[in-house]
Amino acid sequence: MRILFLTPYYPPEVGAPQARIHELALRLVKRGHRVQVLTALPNYPSGIVPPEYRDRAGTWEVRDGVEVHRTWIYATPNKGFVRRILAHLSFMVSAILAAPRMAACDAVYVESPPLFDGIAGWVLAWSKGARMVFNVADLWPQSVVELGMIGP
């Protein structure tokens, strides 16, 4: 099977989503599947892109048998609602623009949050004639109320 993961978070960044997706991708490669990851240039949580990835709109590399396609993102520290939204929206747009360059796939696995990735995942799946899995790993609707962003 040909599987495409869509996530803004992937090693060399460190964190739960990064580790979860990378481990899943590795296990699928070991079982003989072709795995691609469409992700952002690494920058989480500092907003600083490492020197080897700077000044590029995107990169392509193979990490442990996984084809990793990195695309541009508005890199910003993980602070402030507006900056985070802009970063999420920029990755969504970059991922959609990268769709024609991605190899054919049978399934698109979208790791969320951010929820905007679901839109990019839908476009990718539709453009490739693939099925889409939308995994919402951390949905905390009550936190939006507690932050005063919406009423109870």
TrEMBL record:
InterPro entries: Glyco_trans_4-like_N (IPR028098). It comes from the Bacteria. Residues 15-143 form the Glycosyltransferase subfamily 4-like N-terminal domain. This is Glycosyltransferase WbuB. It comes from Candidatus Tanganyikabacteria bacterium.
